[in-house]
Design brief:
With about 260 residues, the chain is mostly helical. The chain has helices spanning about 15-30, 40-50, 50-65, 85-95, 105-125, 125-145, 150-165, 170-185, 195-210, 215-250, and strands at about 70, 75-80.
Length: about 260
């Protein structure tokens, strides 16, 4: 990448949006590629003819958009990335934090995306893709044999199936929902035995290898629905336990005042 005169001087007083727009254009035009390091902040300011404050705000905007990342340290700098899920992730996190979105909503999105993705993967997936899924399941099986938690491999299995749909937009949304959901239930005990999950995933893979889109779609929907139902039951049990604990506490404190 040639850093000389990479950007045009914008003149004094131009807003940070103009800086961000020009960097964005360079990325989408292919002049800046994935993992490329941009010039230092002061050099960017000189090229654009603006202050470092303006450049810093433009970089912050593109970070939020998932196009740039800033790394600290001796090998740090401003790098081009492709974290397109970042804006969606921020939005959903805000909705969750504000109580406008529930775990049930996230499972509903999974039911819309993943069964469809599985049906597409059964048609579009290559043998190499299926081999990759088999390798993920084999690793999960080894984790189970060692009494370890295979959740990360289960997550990767579902993410891989979504990618195999061949739809980048579907992948961004689906993988974001999966990641946020996994983070929300990370500290909850396993919703089902790892062996049960593994068996279901093997059935999905068999349907994919067999080029059976409707079967793959049905099994995937059943898998997701089962996890959601078990989570609902656990939430209900937790609520009942909390109420019982409250009653016991109030009973034990009667007459203490």
């Amino acid at each position: 990448m040639n850093e000389t005169l990479l950007f045009k001087n914008l003149g004094q007083g131009k807003a940070y949006e103009k800086v961000a727009d020009q960097i964005r254009e360079r990325i989408f035009a292919g002049d800046l590629c994935l993992s490329d390091r941009l010039p230092a902040e002061r050099d960017l300011a000189a090229q654009f003819g603006v202050s470092r404050v303006v450049v810093r705000e433009a970089i912050r905007t593109l970070e939020f958009s998932g196009l740039l990342t800033v790394k600290k340290g001796a090998k740090g700098g401003i790098f081009v990335v492709q974290d397109y899920d970042r804006p969606i992730s921020h939005s959903i996190v805000n909705l969750l934090s504000g109580g406008h979105v529930s775990l049930e909503n996230l499972f509903e999105i999974r039911q819309l995306i993943e069964p469809f993705a599985a049906s597409k993967a059964a048609v579009l997936g290559a043998d190499g893709d299926f081999d990759q899924l088999a390798a993920i399941l084999a690793q999960a099986e080894r984790e189970i044999a060692q009494s370890k938690d295979p959740r990360l491999h289960n997550l990767e299995f579902h993410k891989s199936v979504i990618r195999m749909s061949g739809n980048p937009i579907l992948s961004v949304i689906g993988e974001t929902v999966l990641l946020l959901l996994s983070e929300r239930i990370r500290d909850i005990p396993s919703l089902e035995t790892p062996a049960t999950v593994l068996a279901m995933h093997k059935k999905i893979l068999a349907a994919l290898r067999g080029r059976q889109p409707e079967k793959a779609k049905l099994i995937m929907a059943t898998d997701i629905r089962g996890v959601g139902e078990r989570l609902d039951r656990m939430s209900e049990q937790k609520s009942v336990t909390q109420k019982e604990d409250t009653v016991l506490y109030l009973s034990s404190t009667k007459g203490m005042h």
